[in-house]
Amino acid sequence: MTTEAANILGTGWGGTTPDGDRRRIAIVRLTVGLLQGIVLYLLLRATEGDSASWSQRHPDLFAPSLLTALFLPAVLLTGVGKLRLWVYVVWSLIAGAALAFLAWHDIARQADGAREATFPLFVFAAAALFIAHHLVVPADRERRLVAPFAAYFDAAWMAGVQGVLSVGFAGAFWLLLLLGAALFKIIGLSFLSDLLEKGWFTLPLTGLAFATAVHLTDVRDGLIRGVRTVALMLLSWLLLVITVLVGGFLAALPFTGLGGLWQTGSATALVLSAAAALIVLINTAYQDGRPDHRPPVVLRYGVRVASALIAPLIALAFWGLALRIGQHGLTPDRIIATACAVIGAVHGLGYLFAALRPGPWMKPLEPTNILAAVLSVAVILALFSPIADPARLSVADQVARLERGAVKPQDFDYEFLRFDSGKAGLAALDRLTRSENPQVAQYAREARAKTNRHAFDLGDPAVAAATARKVRLEPAPGQPPVPDSFTAQLGRLEPVLRGCAGAAPCRTRALDLNGDGRDDLLVATHGVIMAFIQEPDGRWFEHARYSSACFTPGTDLGAALAEGRIGTRAARLPDLTLNGAPLDAEVSTGCPSATPR
């Protein structure tokens, strides 16, 4: 093997001098940026005009191409010059193949007719790629399977700062272009404005600008380290703020109870977010763990206290998830939240051990971070592949609950199988249409017949019946039943009546609201009253909505309507017309004063 070949395959990129290496790296980065812009433009063209048929007929090719074109260049731009050439090539191929596979599976698992990858895929794929890339780069640089923690910290946080600065550079570049276009336009020259409206110009140019920023920030290593140091210092002092807030929250729970937390409907997300904030800020204070980088004494104590708070937050998250799953079974969101809680538990237990263990300050934090990073990548790959597809697992659990009687047939969410769980849900729904339980089979056939979640057809009793079971309406005492014409249209009205699909029914009251001699309908939830008026053609529409903002917080408008405490008053403004046609008025008023003026 020649010396140059060994250099290329070993540590370098074929340059005989550092300047030669930098030129080659710059060429590679600019080429990657340009090619990314060109590929994104071609994919954009595939969704427009006469080319749209390709993206629609082949979503299983379009989605993998899009995800790979968006994220793989980040690996190519930041890996060049930092990885040995053979590692760079092999890792890029693995990363590209993984991105393409995840996108393909995301399309394949959806029901027939799916054309786009789901939003969570983009978020989690970006996170997994960032973590995995910054596990590979330090390991290759150190020539070890597991590098020292300081190498991981340096690579990840440097890349984070570099990414923020590069995005800022590209944004500033575009602001200058727009300013220049505006200047030329005021003197009658629109060539630059016209160019900026062309995808074939803007996308490659943006790719080049971003690649240029990555290269410039990379060669100015000392500058980036200085920016990182300042950013870490500022963020580390925020740790004291979040520590006091979370500590106060946990200390207050024995006195306030958990009822208010569970009633939010987002308790798990809140406590997991707080735990994530603690983890990030603890690491800004700990940094790479070297003695010369240790923070002041007050922050060192703050890190120990904050590290002990993560485990209780994760325990609350598991508690909330257990309650919701026990009551309503698994859903894709709950499975993803459970996966996040598992990763949080690794951090929480490791950080708690580091805080309590005597010896070098917080040293166990280092292996904990490495283990959690590897676990995060593995969990994301499992969730967005057939291994642990949340939709498939949710369908299996929900159907099992129905079959063992944990949920009544009339209360089961058949629409989840029809619209929210892809092919696995449709397959399960088809099986339920052949159930030995005639009630289950009937409900499943009704759901299977719907073409969209809010499908409505006055002549389709199956759709109306399925929707009527979900929306619960109960007349106030002494009031007539809800008109049949209203219940028959629940399929169309369901989007505005979703607040009536919970455990407590909405209360209704018949009242002539517009003086036409016919009863209209007031429907009250806990905090809102909706006024429905029937048009001459028989169709009901929401005409107005009243809130309890002017009353004591917690005022139950549903109970007020049921008790007859809701009345009417004369309109304070006349109706206006334009050429005989009515003009709609949007009246803006403040809450009335308690004492007349």
Written account of the structure:
The model is unreliable at 1-11 and 593-597 (pLDDT under 50). A five-stranded mixed sheet has the order 1-2-3-4-5. A two-stranded antiparallel sheet has the order 6-7. Strand 4 (528-534) and strand 5 (540-547) form a beta hairpin. By secondary structure, the chain is mainly alpha-helical. 64% of the residues lie in helices and 6% in strands. The protein is built from 23 helices and seven strands. It has helices at residues 3-9, 18-45, 52-57, 59-79, 85-108, 119-142, 149-186, 191-196, 199-219, 221-256, 259-263, 267-286, 297-328, 332-356, 365-383, 390-403, 414-420, 422-432, 438-449, 461-470, 484-487, 490-493, 557-562; strands at 473-475, 506-511, 520-524, 528-534, 540-547, 576-578, 581-583. The N and C termini lie far apart (97 Å).
- Give the overall pLDDT as a whole number: 85
Distinct helical segment count: 23
Strand content range: 5-15%
Biggest sheet details: 5 strands, mixed
What is the tally of beta strands? 7
Rounded to the nearest angstrom, the radius of gyration is: 30 Å
Beginning-to-end CA distance, first to last residue: 97 Å
Summarize the helix and strand pattern as letters.
HHHHHHHHHHHHHHHHHHHHEHHEEEEHEE
Residues in helix, %: 55-70%
> Any low-confidence stretches, pLDDT <50, length ≥5?
1-11, 593-597
Strand order of the largest sheet: 1-2-3-4-5
Shape summary: globular
